[in-house]
Design a protein that fits this description.
279 residues, alpha/beta, 8-stranded mixed sheet, 9 helices, globular
């Protein structure tokens, strides 16, 4: 399905946790001079206007990045700096998607592969990244594109997988693709984003990952409210499974997640910061 448009949701609480983790991993990969590659399977448009009709209609950014920009957050400085660079002002007009955030961490020796199927978002993504010679944008299925691009020559890569999960079969397809990708490229860093709409779907993903035999898997999740008991309530939490995370990531998130819960969540909000499978 191609009905999902991230422009309605850009900058929300799900983007906050996803992009905090993204920034931490990219910064870590850039500490070594060896090149790395960034693969984004569902890249979106790259940059979102928070004053657009889409963003204003739901106003989700107000409960996400909008709550973080007005306070000093030393631990969030690397992430917030990316948002500020997209605006070039203290006011919040734009929100950078994962591709533009990643681009700022890429060096001359690094490369990015961006996949987007929605024709309008693919066009915007191409326009937003055309100035960067080390970025390749493809109008293709990202999970198939991932398998075609690994293992990279550099043997170092971050793979971000964050589909809309509008179709329930995507929960299965994503984990199946990750398992296949890991068999081809076991040393890569894989960040798999997920929305908590029905908890059983996320439990299924976690169990399948644990049973796959893949080692070194961590989970980071932020819940704005307790899991919904009835279907149709909408997304109450979101998180990421991270395979082969930087050794620094868990300590950072252990400190950050309680602060994010206090800033963004309701009274029954929660967070998860745990190891699903040891190294």
């Amino acid at each position: 399905m191609l009905s999902y448009r991230h422009s309605y949701h850009a900058g929300n609480h799900a983007d906050v946790i996803k992009h905090i983790v993204l920034v931490e991993i990219l910064a870590y990969l850039g500490q070594k001079p060896a090149p790395f590659e960034y693969i984004d399977t569902h890249a979106g448009a790259g940059l979102y206007n928070l004053r657009s009709e889409h963003a204003i209609k739901l106003g989700e950014y107000r409960g996400g990045i909008g709550k973080l920009m007005t306070k000093p957050w030393p631990l969030l400085a690397p992430y917030l700096e990316q948002v500020k660079l997209a605006n070039r002002t203290d006011k919040l007009y734009y929100y950078p998607g994962s591709p533009l955030i990643a681009q700022r961490f890429l060096r001359r020796q690094d490369r990015a592969w961006l996949f987007e199927l929605h024709p309008s978002d693919h066009k915007k993504l191409s326009d937003n990244t055309k100035a960067f010679s080390n970025v390749q944008v493809e109008h293709a299925d990202g999970l198939n594109g991932l398998l075609a691009r690994i293992p990279p020559k550099s043997r170092r890569a971050l793979v971000l997988i964050d589909p809309s999960y509008e179709v329930k079969s995507e929960y299965v397809k994503v984990i199946d693709a990750v398992i296949k990708a890991h068999k081809k490229f076991a040393s890569g860093v894989y960040a798999i984003w997920y929305p908590v709409v029905e908890r059983e779907q996320i439990d299924f993903m976690a169990k399948k990952l644990v049973r796959s035999g893949i080692k070194n898997i961590q989970r980071y999740e932020l819940g704005l409210e307790a899991d919904a008991e009835e279907k149709g309530h909408g997304m109450t939490a979101s998180g990421l499974f991270v395979i082969n995370p930087p050794w620094t990531l868990r300590a950072t998130m252990q400190e950050l997640l309680p602060q994010l819960q206090a800033a963004l969540a309701e009274d029954d909000g929660f967070f998860k910061c745990d190891v699903l499978v040891d190294e």
